[in-house]
Amino acid sequence: MAIQSRNKISAQFSMSGMTDIIFLLLIFFMITSTLISPTALKLLLPQSAHQTSAKPFTTVSITQDLHYYIEDKAVALSDLEQILQQKIGSNPDTYISLHVDRRVPIQYVVNVMNIAKDNGYKLILATTAK
Mean pLDDT in the chain? Predict the structure, then answer.
């Protein structure tokens, strides 16, 4: 007399739960990727064949109209050093990304370079790939 079990294990696998998770992740990544914008300023950056991989703490931008910005907030040149000191502090290994329109005279770039040098900040000049 053979004993037979009444509960048989099904060898099938339902993919409906997995596809729901995939679609939710896809929607999440699409929404978060559209929310990220590094800078809202439109600048024509100079071209370079070399790029750096350092991660800057903040960005300083100079537009064609010779207006200074820290990230997306407009600042005057006279207040730039004080605002950077408040934002960064005295950390000597801090990188600042400098975004300058290619039509800006070099003296305005040197002004920001002098502020960075006086405070011990390291400066990265942002460029577009050649």
Answer: 82
